[in-house]
Design goal:
This protein has 4 helices and 15 strands. By secondary structure, it is α+β, with helices and mostly antiparallel strands.
Length: about 375
């Protein structure tokens, strides 16, 4: 009977046979010329099974010469740096141990992810199985920079190798070994052209895949003075010129523009400039400030998408910009009216204040005279 040593301690051990039964053995049950210390866990052995007082025993235990052949293994997906060594089908070397695997037919691939990552991977696996390959190894999800006109964006790809791998199996005879070799050769000769054909299809789909880089709406409010510019990966998607009312306080107009622009849905003000104007009435002169700038929506282009998804995002962004621009135009009219009223109101207020001061002075002089 054939089996393998599954455990060994002290002067005894156990052998597991193909029928799934454990057999006890010790130093006294070994065959001629076999040393107990030369046996190792996992060693293939031949023995005679006998019934012992506590279960099955193995006597006449000797080393068994094992010959390995090759056969295609079960379907595997090996991620990251996990790989199977490459070995040409022309060279059938004996394995270093049972279960050793080699790639015999393989091709690299890079597939863009058009939507959901898991869905893209499952679709790829089905196509690989359909061509007869039994492994995808070195599977990785990688981001690569692509161009859409002047813009650069990031697109996610699945990369790896499609292959047919072989694994070592124990054989009983030279005839069985040769039969496995012949069968594996036929399998590889049939599968390898299909793997190359799938690789060609994936490359063509990769070339035909039109990737676009849509704009996204910025999530932070930017305030840029005159002469300052947006970063290269940002651009103004829409903008309306706004001018604050006139204020005596230096920054009051700027604070109001920012507050009102944010309330209208804008996420930036560019070319922000302070204007000064001198008002006079008779001998009295005073200076007031107003701030002018373009309030709008800024966006950027960094992530690549399939055309359908990109068009959907562009439509949503356009609708958002149109709504913000409409509110900014309305705000522009309101501020322009207030800007005119503010100068008049401020002037009237100043004249009124001067009049009150003069009346207080006259009253004080009348009291002391």
């Amino acid at each position: 009977m054939h089996g393998k040593i599954i455990s060994k301690a002290g002067d005894y051990g156990f052998i597991y046979c193909a029928q799934g039964v454990a057999h006890y053995f010790n130093r006294k049950l070994l065959g001629e010329g076999v040393r107990f210390d030369d046996l190792w866990i996992g060693a293939p052995v031949r023995f005679e099974p006998v019934a012992g007082p506590k279960g099955m025993q193995a006597k006449q235990v000797i080393h068994r010469h094992v010959q390995y052949g090759w056969t295609a293994g079960e379907f595997l997906v090996l991620k990251g740096d996990d790989t199977i060594p490459i070995q040409g089908v022309e060279v059938l070397l004996p394995p270093n141990g049972e279960g050793e695997r080699f790639l015999s037919a393989w091709a690299e691939f890079m597939v863009p992810i058009k939507g959901d990552r898991d869905q893209a991977l499952n679709s790829l696996i089905e196509r690989v199985k359909a061509c007869g390959a039994n492994v995808i190894d070195m599977l990785k999800f990688e981001y690569h920079t692509i161009r859409d006109g002047d813009a650069k964006g990031i697109c996610e790809f699945i990369t790896g190798r499609i292959a047919c791998y072989r694994t070592s199996v124990e054989v009983e005879s030279d005839d069985e070994y040769q039969q496995l070799v012949d069968d594996f050769y036929l399998l590889c000769n049939d599968i390898h052209p299909k793997i190359i054909e799938l690789q060609t299809q994936l490359d063509a789909e990769n070339q035909d895949f039109q990737i676009r880089i849509p704009y996204f709406i910025g999530n932070s409010f930017l305030t840029l003075k005159q002469g300052e510019e947006l970063y290269q990966d940002k651009t103004l998607l829409c903008g309306v010129q706004l001018a604050s009312p006139w204020y005596r306080e230096y920054d009051a107009g700027k604070h109001e523009l920012v507050k009102q622009a944010q309330a209208a849905g804008a996420n930036c003000i560019t070319e922000l400039t302070r204007l000064e104007k001198t008002f006079s009435k008779g001998y009295y002169k005073y200076t007031m400030c107003s701030w002018v700038g373009y309030a709008g929506v800024w966006g950027g282009r960094t992530q690549a998408y399939a055309p359908e998804e990109s068009e959907r995002m562009d439509e949503a962004n356009k609708a958002h910009c149109d709504a913000v621009k409409a509110r900014l135009v309305e705000l522009q009219s309101t501020l322009n009216i207030r800007r005119e009223d503010k100068s008049v109101t401020s002037f009237v207020g100043v004249i009124g204040l001067v009049f009150v001061v003069i009346m207080v002075i006259f009253a004080f002089l009348a009291m002391i005279s």
